Amino acid sequence: MMEIKPTALPGVLELAPKKFGDDRGFFSETWRQDWFSSVGPALNFVQDNHSHSAQKGVLRGLHYQLPPRAQDKLVRVVRGAIFDVAVDIRRASPTFGKWVGVELSAERWNQLLVPKGFAHGFVTLVDDTEVIYKVTDYYSPEHDRSIRFDDPDISVDWPMPPTAVQLSAKDRHAPRFEVAELFD
User: What amino acid positions are annotated as catalytic residues?
Assistant: First the structure.
């Protein structure tokens, strides 16, 4: 079975699959739709993504895709640890502009489900971190968007100062929340 825990933002869920181990190693079912269907919608994952960050402090995000190519994401860490963040970007939502952060790690074996309508980002907490995430739509450059990770209108409380993170050029030049294309 899988433990499913709600977060402060409705729809964003922390999932904790069981691990069964012996002297050979372990086995874990990291996703089963039938277990999830009691608390959430049916999800059809179509693409898996895998990122490696060589150093602590690599920050990726805040990213999302606009409709009709919006993506649900199921994020897990297979090596290392991250601080994973989801930001509600649905204008009609009572939690619009709010964020939640969860530490995900290979040791804790937990995952975060980030639904459509949320921007997503993470920062690595240790060197040599690998993140795998499933998505419900294919990557679409025309629908790909981002928001500045350090936007004061969102005020994510990252576990390290902005000067200590490494960013891509895309993330360094991401627009502010107030001018970003969001979900209506």
Answer: 63, 133
